[in-house]
């Protein structure tokens, strides 16, 4: 008597392989996952029904049996062809920062059901910037994206999102990059650090923020962009709790009444880029010469990794130059639009 299987174990193994094979055949069509293809087509349908564009923004997104990994704005991994990177930036094709853009977003918004992204189990990066999104994304399941354990980058910049979004963001503990620039955020960034403990890059450019409840919880932060907000001198003291910070941008905030206290930055020993432009900072007479400022200049040498510093559009005079000469790694310096007079002391500067 002949047997196809030598043992029950081998039979079970053969059956298992056959099941896996049929799952692959059923789940992958045209080189990508069928479930993910359907979700992509659902996203396109949602956008077209909301905006009715004159030109198809996603011409390759067609259910014709082709490989959805080859569609524009989509990247997949090479093994199982899962979608890993999805960029839906500026779907309406709006020009950069003009009246037409704001008028369009006031007349129409994209009621995107954010839970549609739950179909992309391997998603690592999602870009939804400049899409006229509002707080509706919270109601449609933003917090549920926490089930996407590999999601590391989320870009929601250039939308109309308010502080309502913060509790949902707190659930996304896998994030390493979060871009919330150019929205309508106000006041204080709440204590989400326990959930966002892996965050390395945070961009809050062009909002109405004034501070953080517990910024010390974001210990892994390496890049912090706070340009064009309302942070004042009291916020600077809290930065010492960010030992890994490499880039800090405070351009265009409200530090104008702050006497430049260098010692508040000396704890940031990993800092490589610093922008304090547009704050009307100055070196007041009582801390020049042999006073406190002289001692602080000596302390600047502790910032051994600082390569770039921007101090443009302030009220500094020539005394700041000798202070900056204490920075051993400095190779880029911006002192435009200050009160510098006479010759520039190049010798010993670099």
From TrEMBL:
Alphabetical list of InterPro entries matching this protein: Leu-rich_rpt, Leu-rich_rpt_typical-subtyp, LRR_dom_sf, LRR_N_plant-typ, RLP23-like
Source taxon at top rank: Eukaryota
GO cellular component: plasma membrane
Cellular compartments annotated: Cell membrane
GO biological process: one example: response to other organism
Membrane topology, record value: Single-pass type I membrane protein
Signal peptide segment: 1-30
Pfam families the record matches: LRR_1 (PF00560), LRR_6 (PF13516), LRR_8 (PF13855), LRRNT_2 (PF08263)
Keywords for this protein: Cell membrane, Glycoprotein, Leucine-rich repeat, Membrane, Repeat, Signal, Transmembrane, Transmembrane helix
Keyword Cell membrane appears in the UniProt entry: yes
Ranges where the Leucine-rich repeat-containing N-terminal plant-type domain occurs: 34-77
Family: Belongs to the RLP family.
Record's protein name: Leucine-rich repeat-containing N-terminal plant-type domain-containing protein
Organism: Centaurea solstitialis (yellow star-thistle)
């Amino acid at each position: 008597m002949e047997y196809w299987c030598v043992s029950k174990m081998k039979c079970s193994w053969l059956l298992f392989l056959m099941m896996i094979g049929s799952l692959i055949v059923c789940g992958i069509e045209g080189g990508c996952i069928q479930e993910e293809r359907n979700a992509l087509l659902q996203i396109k349908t949602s956008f077209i029904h909301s905006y009715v564009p004159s030109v198809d923004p996603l011409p390759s997104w067609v259910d014709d049996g082709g490989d959805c990994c080859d569609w524009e704005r989509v990247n997949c991994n090479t093994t199982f062809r899962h979608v890993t990177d999805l960029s839906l930036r500026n779907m309406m094709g709006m020009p950069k920062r003009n009246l037409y853009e704001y008028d369009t977003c006031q007349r129409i918004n994209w009621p995107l059901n954010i839970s549609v992204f739950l179909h992309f189990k391997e998603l690592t990066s999602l870009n939804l910037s400049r899409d006229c999104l509002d707080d509706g994304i919270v109601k449609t399941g933003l917090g549920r994206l926490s089930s996407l354990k590999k999601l590391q980058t989320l870009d929601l910049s250039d939308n109309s999102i308010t502080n309502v979004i913060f509790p949902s963001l707190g659930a996304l503990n896998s994030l390493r990059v979060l871009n919330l620039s150019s929205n309508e955020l106000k006041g204080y960034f709440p204590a989400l650090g326990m959930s966002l403990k892996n965050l390395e890059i945070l961009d809050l450019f062009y909002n109405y923020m004034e501070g953080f409840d517990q910024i010390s919880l974001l210990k892994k932060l390496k890049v912090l962009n706070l340009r064009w907000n309302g942070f004042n001198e009291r916020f600077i003291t809290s930065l010492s709790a960010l030992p890994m910070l490499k880039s800090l941008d405070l351009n265009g905030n409200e530090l104008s009444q702050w006497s430049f206290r260098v010692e508040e930055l000396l704890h940031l020993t990993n800092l490589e880029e610093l922008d304090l432009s547009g704050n009307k900072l100055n070196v007041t007479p009582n801390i020049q010469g042999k006073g406190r400022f002289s001692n602080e200049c000596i302390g600047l040498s502790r910032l051994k990794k600082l390569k770039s510093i921007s101090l443009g559009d302030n009220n500094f005079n020539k005394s700041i130059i000798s202070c900056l000469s204490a920075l051993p790694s400095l190779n880029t310096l911006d002192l435009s639009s200050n009160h510098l007079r006479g010759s520039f002391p190049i010798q010993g500067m670099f």
